Amino acid sequence: MISKPRRLSPAAILFFFYKDIKNLFIPAAVFAFATFQQARFWTITGLVSLFLLVVVGDVVKYMTFSYQFFDQEILVRKGIFVKKVNHIPYDRIQNVTANQWFFLRPFKLEELEIETAGHSDGPEVSLAAVSVDLKDELNNYRKQFKTTETVVENEETTLSGQSYAITWRELIKFSLTSPAFLSGLLVVLAIYGKVQHSISAQMYAAAAQEFSHLGWVIVVVGMLLIVLAFYLVSVFVLIARYYHFHLTMENNQFEMQYGFFKTKKTSISQSRIQAVVVKQTLLRRMLNIASVKLVIISNSKKEDTEKDIIVMPVIETVKLTGFMHKFFPNIPVEKGQALAANSGTYYYDLRNAIIFSLVTDLIIGLFIFKISVILVLVVIVISAIIWIVPAYLNARRAAVAVMDDKYVFLQNNHLTSKNSYFVPKNSIQLLERRQSIWLGRKKFAHLRLSCRSGIGERNLKVKYLPQAQVDRVVEWYKKSSN
């Protein structure tokens, strides 16, 4: 069966325009900021010309873009002077993601991103503004021509019909405890770093004069209000992003749908999962909530595939065991309880942290001792917090244990986040046991476990564990998986 060549909806021109403006906004803003006062006419002329070029280019891109379904592949054609023809066999498609902006819902249109096994710079093809029925049509072709995949041991049972949706209470807790607003501040500072050379000395002088009239108290209050504004915006953004997050399982495929302004639908096959991660920051641990993520195999460098896939952004810890049993029934979650930390683990981690803290105090103290003794004391306190608190958490949360013949449990700490990994044996690419001469005398060792993640690898490490714990995992890994 061969379909006729199809074009995108005219709404695709808006998609192209949005992406072009998004890429050109900062360079155009810097150009306008730097030249407007000296050459207003040419600045306006340049911006208008750029706008017209973008519009014309997007219309041409729409007119020359087409796609067509064949028996074993989808064919995508684009380009004027350089014709590009993409042949995408159905059995090479790894994932199809649907993104639907709120203004497209009345027209039943969405964007499809097709990710293949041989492309690493984002989706192989993005079909902007196509019918919402196209994803189902494409998936039907994929089912007909799907090649036999290697069946991993944790897919012995076909799972279908399971579903879970986050509650408003969980979503609010998740959004309020996110440090995402700091990223917004960093973006603003980065933009300022690019345009600061374009700001005249007169503007700096005028700003300084205004601040001197306002007084330092008002300035500090103003800065706090700016931080609060970024925080509130980040909370709103997270609520909009994960609005009505709904997870279902159909034929061993995780199906996720979420988003308010932009509804995203994506699927992840269990065959791509390398590990399951339960993550808790210190604040979220106090509020008894956690996130569940997946370490997966992927060939795309774009967006979420660079990181762990969030399969459940937030869930109350009392529901976590039931959730794991429902979606990962082969993982013996009850056997993943971390062992009590050994006193030797505390000793080594805290010893190293204290040494680094003292070295930091000494280096900084040499420069500020003559300025203020109180400042030195402040540095000592801050240094102790920065070094010793994470070290204590590293020791408290370091654990590794064999769960059964198929799974190992590994727990570690990153800054203040507790990470619990459930890793199947057949996903482990490398298991490394490290032990210095001095640690050998004390019967302690390190363990590094490596599995595939994205287009690279993920190294999971735990340090200063009793040698017996590490050796049990090594012996478990040496045994045949059969």
From TrEMBL:
This is YdbS-like PH domain-containing protein. Pfam families: bPH_2 (PF03703). The keyword Hydrolase does not apply. The keyword Heme does not apply. Keywords: Membrane, Transmembrane, Transmembrane helix. It comes from the Bacteria. Residues 62-140, 242-305 form the YdbS-like PH domain. The chain crosses the membrane at residues 12-35, 41-60, 171-193, 213-239, 350-368, 374-393.
